[in-house]
Design goal:
Helix 13 links the parallel strand 4 and strand 5. The relative contact order is 0.09. It is elongated and about 85 Å long. Helix content is 48%, strand content 10%. The protein is α/β, with parallel strands linked by helices and 399 residues long. Helix 1 packs across helix 2 and helix 3 runs antiparallel to helix 7.
Length: 399
């Protein structure tokens, strides 16, 4: 089996990307060394394989390959991700998985025996003490096919949150997603966002969303919390950095046809009067010649209702059609079909929120005293928002 493994690996067709992985390069080096009857090179490659497996936290080649194959961006999973069909590609992928299964099942004892036959007796103690990796095969072609059909392929199968910056998609393995019990206040606004997103995941036509209003009201947290809503497992959240706005059309093209549903999240959206990148967002929102795919929606937050800042000089210039120019800039927010205000709380709402948060934290303070001190805090640090309530309670716990 060792003798046939080397040509079988060279014949991989749909999993060529695996052969460029450092660990697989060492596997090939081991098989090449055995074929060339170079015992020392084989021993070196063997030890590198064991080191690489343990460094990756894997028990064996099968464990490592199962992880890599599940999240591959190779032709076969990409085909299934987009719902395509290609019998020739499917058969080639099946053969490749069978080859990798045989590789996973290679017995370390057989590899060590093959090296022993090539090395002088002085190497016998070293060979006898070599650690071994597990040769279990935790995957089949049918298992992988089923996984691709449900979860898709590549990074979007592995991760749910991403940053888009300077033309690069950066996975966020552990996104900042506040739990529902942390989200107090503005329940009506959040319910609108959740309902819109639920319809989006159901394949319905929905509105792009703008959450606007006072800082600290939980606009960004509302969007990020969508990743924790039960039934929203197919949702992917991509936060667009300001320097990535111009690259949004290219990103949207790449997302087209994929199994998941994508929210492109623009946090704290605002433009200076001479910033023309707003035209990119405008075109995406209202549609240009290129149709936006149905699996992409735009959600944005802003502290401003009008997203393009104006100055008095804008209204006093000598441009003939300056009123039309002003309207063009200030109407960007109107391109969002669902505009949800997050305004500062009233005094009564703020005190009620403080009381509920204090109870959640188990803060031992009488209600009257808590409310009295909250009023004093609000007079010193105006800002009747959930953020202000959290800051107030944090100040109490520091006393």
């Amino acid at each position: 089996m060792i003798e046939t493994m080397r040509p079988a690996l060279l014949g991989l067709t749909t999993c060529r990307d695996l052969l460029r992985e450092p660990l697989m390069l060492q596997v090939r080096a081991l098989l090449d060394a055995l074929a060339a009857q170079n015992g020392e090179a084989a021993l070196s490659a063997y030890t590198e394989i064991f080191y690489g497996l343990r460094q990756a936290g894997k028990a064996g080649l099968g464990d490592w390959l199962w992880d890599r194959l599940r999240y591959a961006e190779s032709p076969y999973p990409a085909l299934l991700d987009r719902g395509g069909s290609d019998p020739a590609l499917e058969e080639a992928a099946r053969r490749d998985v069978e080859t990798l299964s045989r590789l996973s099942a290679l017995d370390c004892g057989g590899l060590i025996a093959a090296m022993e036959a090539l090395l002088p007796p002085a190497f016998q103690p070293t060979l006898a003490a070599l650690p071994r990796w597990d040769n279990a095969v935790p995957f089949t072609f049918d298992d992988l096919t089923a996984f691709y059909k449900v979860h898709g392929a590549g990074l979007f199968a592995r991760y749910r949150a991403f940053l888009w910056s300077e033309g690069a998609l950066i996975p966020v393995p552990d996104p900042d997603t506040p739990q529902e019990e942390e989200m107090m206040g503005y329940s009506l606004q959040r319910e609108q966002v959740i309902a819109n997103t639920r319809a989006f995941l159901a394949g319905k036509r929905i509105n792009d969303v703008l959450l606007y209003g006072d800082s600290g009201t939980g606009k960004s947290a509302t969007v990020k919390t969508l990743l924790t809503v039960p039934g929203f497992e197919a949702l992917r959240l991509i936060e667009i950095q300001k320097d990535g706005l111009r690259g949004m059309p290219a990103l949207i093209r790449d997302l087209s046809g994929r199994k998941q549903r994508f929210i492109l999240f623009i946090d704290d959206l605002a433009f200076d009067q001479d910033d023309h990148t707003y035209s990119v967002v405008k075109t995406i929102l209202e549609g240009g010649l290129e149709k936006r795919p149905a699996n992409v929606a735009i959600y944005a937050t802003s502290n401003r209702r009008l997203l393009v800042r104006q100055t008095f000089s804008d209204r006093q210039g000598d441009e003939v059609d300056r009123q039309e120019t002003i309207q063009e800039k200030t109407a960007l927010s109107d391109r969002f079909g669902l505009r949800i205000p997050y305004l500062a709380l009233t005094k009564a709402e703020f005190l009620d929120l403080v009381e509920r948060m204090a109870a959640q934290r188990g803060l031992p303070m009488a209600t009257e005293e808590l409310r009295r001190r909250a009023i004093q805090w609000d007079m010193r640090f105006p800002g009747r928002t959930p953020r202000g309530a959290r800051q107030f309670l944090a100040s109490l716990q520091m006393d």
